[in-house]
Amino acid sequence: MSYQNIIIAISDAFQCEHLQDAGVAVPANDTIAAEIIGAQRSMPDYLRLPMYLMTWYFDMSGLVRSGRRFQSLDQEQKLGCINAWRNSRIGTLRSFVRFYESLFLLIALQEDIH
């Protein structure tokens, strides 16, 4: 399982949560994932590695909740993991979800990527 698969799974969950019923034309999740990974590669060095590690940690956190990695969960379980981190008492976890959610929405809704 690759890093890109984790990003695709996160994008898929956000698309289901925010845009599925909106009737908005959204690019394919692999296109969005490539854009997100590109944005991460342009981050300063001191942020790139921690975001990479937090993303892997998020993927593995699915094991605790349901015995499978985040990218292998169904949509309902993915949204449960995201909401658990979104509502966590730990600010870093909340910020992680907010980062990916914001980046996803900015990329998915920009006109020139369609």
Determine the N-to-C terminus distance: 27 Å
**Low-pLDDT ranges:** none
Summarize the helix and strand pattern as letters: HHHHH
Count of helix runs? 5
Helix content: over 70%
The class by helix and strand makeup works out as: mainly alpha
Q: Radius of gyration, Cα only, in angstroms? A: 14 Å
Count of individual domains: 1
Strand segment count? 0
User: Average pLDDT across residues?
Assistant: 88
Largest sheet: none
Overall geometric form: globular
Bin the strand percentage.
Answer: under 5%
Keywords:
single chain, 114 residues, 5 helices, mainly alpha
What do these coordinates show?
With 114 residues, the chain is mainly α. It has one domain. The protein has 5 helices and no strands. The chain has helices spanning 3-19, 29-41, 45-66, 75-86, 91-109. The chain is globular.
SSE map:
Layout: H1 3-19, H2 29-41, H3 45-66, H4 75-86, H5 91-109
Helix pairs in contact: 1-2, 1-4, 1-5
Can you summarize this structure?
By secondary structure, this protein is an all-alpha fold. The chain has helices at residues 3-19, 29-41, 45-66, 75-86, 91-109.
